[in-house]
Amino acid sequence: MEYVAYIALLLGICLILLTFPGYIELLWLTIGGILPLRRLPSPQTTLQHIAILIPAHNESGDIARCVHSLQQCTPPDTPYSIYVIADNCTDDTANQAQIAGASVIIRQDDSKRGKGYALDYAFNQLFSQEVDAVLIIDADTVVEANFIQACEQIFLAGAGALQCRYVVNNPTASLRTHLMHIALLAFNVLRLRGRERWNLSVGISGNGFGVRKQTIQAVPYCASSVVEDLEYHLSLVRAGIRVWMVDNTTVRADMPISASGNATQRARWEGGRLRMMRENIPRLTHAVFKGQWRLLEPLLDLLLLPLALHVLLLTIMLCIPISWLQIYALIGFGIVIFHVLAAIKVGGGHWRDVAILGIAPFYILWKLVQIPRLLRAARKSAQWVRTERETPKK
Description:
Helices cover about 55% and strands about 15% of the residues. It has helices at about 1-35, 65-70, 95-100, 115-125, 145-155, 175-195, 215-220, 230-240, 260-290, 295-305, 305-320, 325-345, 350-355, 360-370, 370-375, and strands at about 50-55, 80-85, 105, 135, 140-145, 160-170, 210, 245-255. About 45% of the residues are buried.
């Protein structure tokens, strides 16, 4: 009996070590996310030309809609152009982009496949011209009318890099897309607001972000993993460059409806994140202990497990018959609930978003089934795989 109690105690301690950084991160960013953001400083700089860049691999069904969405934006004070980089395409993406009115950069390199390589190639092309800031939009995305104008204001206020709100465009298409909608309200809205409120680098979500020429010159875009956005953001933070949030505009992307498409996307995102955790947590921990406090929040962010796994570990703790461990788990559940409800609130959600959380346990079980695929995606040799899409949009 004592042996069983000892094992239970040891398991409980291990679970606390795994979840406590997530406790701190979720609570810290949730409190910051519900507070009013700081006022922008007066314009600190000028812009000559803004390029909006759309990386596209076999996106002929979506590319025209994306380009037209950008063309309908309120014109900023700075001249701007729309570019599509047709990366290793085998369809007529380039032709459809030209018909829609975008300039096209064509890249063919079968040995270097993935969004990171495409962005690096395009940055070198664009920044050799009279372009001093680039905004990046995924091909399956639509933007709000003030998107370019709002990003311009943040650049003029002194940002070297920025990230706007990035949420789901088709939340009612399926139960999975609705849950993804809530997840992105937390991940790409609330947490970004929290970091911005505490004057931290908000992160790069891969869609709806921007960089200035000086930023790329200081930290070249050499990120080539399947989560190149996270990889590049860590490089920026190490270099002392903060990514600012653009809270008053949003980009919306379509999420896959099919189980296979959703599984591919989640494996790429979370598997790639696991790789970044493995490679960067030791280095960030060492740097924090040496006094580089600006790296503390990125470290906590990496130590925060995917929310579904975090909840699963709290559930396991609740089942262990140790009273103080169960109290810890209940507090953890309270923080998670606080975080999700705050995300729905600041993200402009609806009561239906709260109701849909009732199926979250089934989503967690589905995520558990995907663990082998996720671990394969976490390998350093993992290749970028395009997410399977449904019928093309017009």
